[in-house]
Amino acid sequence: MEDKEKERDSFLKKAILGFFIGLAVIVPGISGSTIAIIFKLYKKILYAIAHFIKEFKYSVMFLSPIIVGAVIGVFVGFFTVQKLIDLIPFAIISLFGGLMLGAIPSLKDEVKGVEVKKYHIAFIVLGIIIPLIMTIIPILIALNSDIQENRLTINFPSFCVYLVLGFLVAATQFIPGCSATATLMALGYFMPIMRSLTLSYITNNPMILVVYLFLIIGFVVGCAVLGKLLNHLIERFKNIMYFLFIGLSLGSIICLFLNSDMLLLYQGWAKSATFPFLDVFLGVGLFIVGTIIAYELVLFMRRKGSKE
Description:
This protein is mainly α and 308 residues long. It contains 13 helices and no strands.
């Protein structure tokens, strides 16, 4: 009886984790891999993916509830976020930034007791710099073109870009602290992709389905390659990798507020006759709330882990 209850709890735990991973694909600021670390399932997921062929039955049984939860999370996240970002963009981004900040202690737990050396700090700094570079380049392009709204183009060079984007989104699902949406926002592709995911847009632009296909192919290839690679790197260089992840988390938070999509919003504020006090003050409040919620989840899982 106890085994059945444990099995049911394990299935539910993995399904909930999958739901958050699905949300992470759509929702800025939520890192699926950070949630996996909080739930103490991150290394098991990497193992299941890295040994998918060799241990096929175990991998399928382990990953199935996570995949089911992820599909549900994608749909829920898409319909919710699309509406909220149109209504109060800065406030919603602030909430997600707070969620990222509050989850960082779960990464620190992985290197608890490790003597911090100069090269560890160097990897934190490197982690901060990487997303900032990814953000600055599209911003410079946007500034040189008067910050025009980004649109999805449909041609062969663009298809290669979408393959890379799919690969990068897959990477964010394995690299703690990185958000798929934050990465897409940094590169200026989040809003165009979100706006294209409507029946009317697809009907009027059927070739957009080819864009989605290339994104999916890039994502699948990325999962296969990076799952195995990161499993190997964490086994060999665990401490270095987690210090890098902490830096990536901090850099991604900055990039949520500093990217070409947000520049369009700030430009609108500058042109407006009235300052958007409601959106800004609501954003500050939601940032604090998001930080508290994520940190409370970390504390809850710590307590649960100590009991177990």
